[in-house]
């Protein structure tokens, strides 16, 4: 299996487990899970057959651990635009978290803070390197520091997904540190 095929499978999983399950005729449960067999049959019937071993390889080898397999089921770990309850407990964040973006987004972020946009949560990284990679997907990255400790003390809730992405409902501008 070549790397291009693995990337295509990963993108297919993300699209249908995070955003458009109905497009291939599957239904996620309230926690975002679907039976692997159901998913594989649906993918094949919609012209995208996936070998079970390749599915395992994509889930295990995904650099961001975007997906989880358990008890014959699969789901995305976060990033849904659908109403999904990932059942993540509230967690105390580290003092600082980071958010990768691009310069063209800074005026809106300065005015409104970080908003979930078409997702349910703002995604925050535990380190600058990860935030840099995230921001680089859309252009030259700009990394913002989030004073997560102060946010937590002010009553804002944080959750952390299975792959280490920190989730918040939003980040007000007062808790953001912009690069010079």
UniProtKB/TrEMBL annotation:
Record keyword Transferase present: yes
Top-level taxon of the source organism: Bacteria
Pfam families reported in the protein's UniProt record: PTS_2-RNA (PF01885)
Coiled-coil annotated residue ranges, if any: none
EC number: 2.7.1.-
Keywords noted in UniProt: NAD, Transferase
This protein's record includes keyword Transferase: yes
GO molecular-function term, one example from the UniProt record: transferase activity
Residues annotated as transmembrane: none
Enzyme class, broadest EC rank: transferase
Role: Removes the 2'-phosphate from RNA via an intermediate in which the phosphate is ADP-ribosylated by NAD followed by a presumed transesterification to release the RNA and generate ADP-ribose 1''-2''-cyclic phosphate (APPR>P). May function as an ADP-ribosylase.
Family affiliation: Belongs to the KptA/TPT1 family.
Name of this chain's protein: Probable RNA 2'-phosphotransferase
